Amino acid sequence: MPADLAVIGLGHLGLPLAQAATAAGIDTIGYDPDPHTVAELRAGRLPLECADGSLTAAEVRRMIAAGFRPTTADAELGKVRTAVICAPTRLGEDRALDLSAIGAAARALAVRLRPHTTVLLESPVYPGATEEYLRPLLESGSGLRAGHDFHLAYSPTRVDPGTKRHGYAGIPKVIGGLTPACTEAAAAFYGRVCEKVVRARGPREAEAVRVLETNYRYVNIALVNEMAVFCHDIGVDLWDVVRCAETKPFGFQAFRPGPGVGGPGVPIDPNYLSYKGRSLGYPLRMVEVAQEVNGRMPRYVTQRCATLLNEHGKSARGARVLLLGVSYKADVSDQQGSPAREIASRLMELGAQLSYHDPHVAQWRVMGRPVPRADSVYEAAAAADLTVLLQHHRTYDLQGLAVKAQLLLDTRGATPAGAGHRM
Q: Of 15, 41, 287, 330, which one has the fewest beta carbons inside 10 Å?
């Protein structure tokens, strides 16, 4: 049966869109080349790689019951009015963007692309990619012309994993089409699933929106991370500084330091700017400095661990260290880009004996070796020479942990003042 919509790529980008479209009564198929992903979704289960807190297995089952159809059959792509590419992007070994998943999705769609179809790209890309990379693939594979035979537009994904505070429908949707008609076709689709549509001048502007939004957070986290190191060195409680500063009703937005920056977008997006900037012959220094600052934080946390142990008469070699929370964000299981892995690796290199606890992560490997998982977080904290809070999951009773732990380093400023050592 024909469908109104095909979501291409059923990961953390595509599934929230598929859920919102299905809930809006749009007949939706989900295409993914991975048979395991499709089989799990058909069975009403959430694939592990999609468990970032955006959806639950119960919500997947409701989607299936409402008519959502996951498939690996690319022939289905020739039967839809709108196709949205939500394929993942990664950084390659040379730090350049790997758009191969977008290319594979485009080629699968192109050979079946029909006139008057609306094609939308939501994957994170550098400004210009929709026109320079995606458009030629679609046109050469289909024999159709973008902006003439089919509509083409870009819309940056805006999701907040691990929280239901912002529903998909309530987040304004930015769109930029190759032509004004493309923009209006995209607006007509997104208007069915979102309460507000914001029109950009074109796809490059829409692509740059995501880069700006991500780097705004990334650069400000770098600033507060640098402040954390500075304040510790001069004996100032940064967490109290932030608490007071955020009372200012204008000109300030509170960001908080941490052991590093992770997630599926943050480690990649800053490189869009530097990647394009280098091709223009100059670096974008603010972004590159932010990368340098944030990239230093796992090493800084490791040094703080070793210093704390030393101050209490213990060496890092042989010390029992418990890491609490190894995902990249609170209350999710996604570990992509999490600084916990580098911190664990560095502690292992110092000779520490590691264990971990995370209510969302059942198994964890570092440097190819399994890290023992603590069954009881309180007993493990009492037995460890040092407990390090890397992620503040809401299930943690931090006041109780501070009492139980022999020595506690809080990298999130979540423990009560005086209850441990805050970063």
A: 330
